[in-house]
Amino acid sequence: MVFSPTPSPAGSPPTLEETTTRETTPWTPLFSHSCSFPPEIFREVMLNLVRNPNINSNRLFRADISLDIPFTSNLAPDSEIPPRIALFKDFDLKTVMVRTMIPRNPLLDKPLDQTCMFYEQTRDSDIQSLVIYHPHISSASESPFYHPSVRGIAFLHTSTSTCKETNLSIHYSFFPASPRSPIHEQTAHHLLRVLHKHGQGLSTGYVKRVHHDVVLPQAVVQNTYARLKAKYAKALCENWSESTDPTKHVFEDLGIAAFLIELWREMYDGGAFPGFVDIGCGNGLLVHILLEEGYAGWGFDARRRKSWATWSEAAQRNLKELVLIPSIIQTAGSASGPGDRNLDTEAGKGVQGEEREGVGIHNGIFPTGTFIISNHADELTPWTPILATLSSSPFIMIPCCSHALSGSRFRAPPPKNTNTSTSAFASLVAWVSKIAEDSGWVVEKEMLRIPSTRNTALIGRRRSTADVDVDVDRREVDMKDVVRKYGGAEGWEGNAMKLVSGVLRGH
Questions:
Q1: How far is residue 407's CA from residue 383's CA, in Å, rounded to a whole number?
Q2: pLDDT at residue 503 tops 80
Q3: Are 54 and 124 contacting, i.e. CB atoms less than 8 angstroms apart?
Q4: Could you tell me which CATH number the domain at 274-501 has?
Q5: N or C of the chain: less Cβ packing under 10 Å?
Q6: How far apart, in whole angstroms, are the C-alpha atoms of residue 475 and residue 326?
Q7: 79 with 67: CB under 8 angstroms?
Q8: How far is the C-alpha of 285 from the C-alpha of 381, rounded, in Å?
Q9: pLDDT digit string (tens) for 277-308?
């Protein structure tokens, strides 16, 4: 259904009558539109919009709900933010909620408290559902940029008992000093369009594909992100030394840092932090931020970036130029037995001895418990859970470009037992998840709130098998079996060495 609402001309009579006080400002109808969803879906969509105001405005992070209770005539809630109740003729107030809308940039916008009320009315064959937004302000000048400068917003859903004729409308209660204007009409049009879109989508069986905030609560990560952004973003963007877009990389890595900080807070709960390593760290920004926040760790990449010299002294000391050749496939100095010779030989194809001269090599074995970060590490992404198993270390990997365990580009096979078409990226995520599972990890999936379409984080912090007593040799054998199962590592060393002089990745 194409969204083409009918405007209510100026001077149209109000259809809502507020009875809270005699001096109540009239409610002005602005737009209406037919719809095909029932009152139950209207309520469900409105609840979602109340809880997630960022759907309507990208200047908002979220809403903190401080009150959510049924309405009674003797309502006296024990709440830090008292609700502002509004009553309407012929409507029964059912639910009262109070939310605080949290802006993305607290330096530009301020939080806003708002009472949200849900009403119902059944009269003859008509069923009407009403939702009121009542901001806790007393004048238009107090309204932040992300909220219409009005006293209140009303969403009305009207249907017959058979739901054959169903209608949505939006109404504003204006402040006397701020009457109806084109800007008010634009915001009303937008709010009604979003409500209509979500209601129609839900009624036709739309299933949300992306689920955020599964691993950590939205609020704690966003609060930390806001703090990091206020502390670092301006200087990082102004002093950016790479040729890439500073805003994308700065805000992306600040978001990842915020998630890691809160993840580690939950995992270690005030205990000793074991340190981190960022494999394939690229420009080193994430390492710099985490070190500045007091977390011990380091990062390495096959090639030094010019931005490394611009970070803190601690970051410069802890960013290393190294090529990773996993211990289980090294052709020189490895402790592999005769049965492993084929795997090691294949991995070393195309490598001349002199190519190692002057190039630092890391074997991928880290101190036990070191938290492994693999952020858009490309060639190292499928190796991440294998390295984590060999080091008994938790990890996070954020896949980007698809590479085989050999280091060559390839398209990951689509997951089995699916009846829907799968994108190349979705296939990559499914493939590396399966490698992690076969490496013995319980894989948690989180869609990070960062400015990137490659925002899927796969986290391994719990083992699916009780392997505490498994010795190192047995673990190596198991991981070599995993490498073979997923295509082998033929040519890895040659491809890894090419990164030293090859074209840099964009991160």
A1: 10
A2: no
A3: no
A4: 3.40.50
A5: N
A6: 14
A7: yes
A8: 19
A9: 999 999 999 999 999 999 999 999 999 999 99
Count of Cβ atoms closer than 10 Å to residue 163 Cβ: 13
Q: Residue 375, Cβ neighbours under 10 Å: how many?
A: 25
Phi, psi of 483 (to 5 degrees): -60, -45
Residues 6+ apart with CB under 8 A from 195: 45, 46, 49, 155, 168, 170
pLDDT confidence of residue 2: 84
pLDDT tens-digit readout, 328-343: 987 543 333 333 334 5
**Spatial strand order in the sheet of 319-321:** 319-321, 297-301, 276-279, 371-375, 395-398, 456-463, 441-447
Please tell me what DSSP assigns to residue 231: I
User: For 6-203, which CATH class?
Assistant: alpha beta
Which of these ranges, 228-232, 244-248, 390-394, 493-497, has the smallest mean pLDDT? Answer: 244-248
The ranges assigned to domains in the chain are 6-203, 274-501
Contact present, 256 and 450 (Cβ < 8 Å): yes
How many angstroms separate the CA atoms of 153 and 116, rounded? 10
Q: What are phi and psi of 162, to 5 degrees?
A: -95, -5
**Residue 218 reports pLDDT greater than 60:** yes
